[in-house]
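input
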Amino acid sequence: MRKLANLLRVLFSGYRKGSANDGRRSPHLSPAASARSSDNRSGQMNGRGPGQASDPAAKPEGPDIALKIPVHMAVFMDGNGRWASQRGLPRTAGHRAGAENLQNLCRMCGRYGIQYVTVYAFSTENWNRPQDEVHALMELFVEFFHRYDRELAKEGIRVRFSGDLAGLPERVQAIIRQAEADSIQRTRLQLIIAINYGGRREIVHAAQKISRAVQSGSLAPDDITEHTFSQALYLPDVPDPDLVIRPSGEYRLSNFLLWQSAYAELWFADILWPDFNESHLETALRDFTRRDRRFGGISKP
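output
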């Protein structure tokens, strides 16, 4: 009887210790990663493309690793129209689903501690789309900020915009001015929306700005450096992106942050933007963590 009591005491003690550890975060994971169950953890690259994940929902091989979190992450909101077409819906329904997913992306970035996220919302080339689709996109832009302004404020998200903003409809420009002014004191995350944005146009505008400075005599040609040029871009205070994520199965930069992405890590996946979720983001962050970022140098021992 005494032996049985001792055995029960040992078993019960072990159970209590195990239960106490169940809620602890793994020291090898970021808080966001350790908070989820292992079946949501995602996988590794398949070698078919630079940074492409073969199955973003697959369970990773090997032990958990401490995630390196990019300071600035850039994301293509790509594949909305195809997402809608696959479901027999109008393309505008896909754009609406993509806009809803932007809200989810902001929450994810906040949980991981990413400080800046730039999303490619509307390019200078997107004006070539059917007029009714362009109009719907502009209306959706206005609706998004009317619907989510309070939640953005609650989450501490500062909203900024990058692009040829003078080329947008006046109603959209008014929303931009209001959103930037209302959110300027928020510090948790900077959400940068690239709208009417083109990397080549940004570079041209920077060159024109520098040319005017030279013409006025305030800048000597020999004093123009890479830093000078960077300071002439749309948002010179924002650091270059560390990681660029492009879902939708495309393998190109499509005129997005051409100057700033010189040393960014690129990650591609065969997933349409409205379906992009935290499992895919964690896969991208795991792959980013494994990259050896040498910036032209050699690996550190």
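quick obs: Confidence is low (pLDDT under 50) at residues 1-63.
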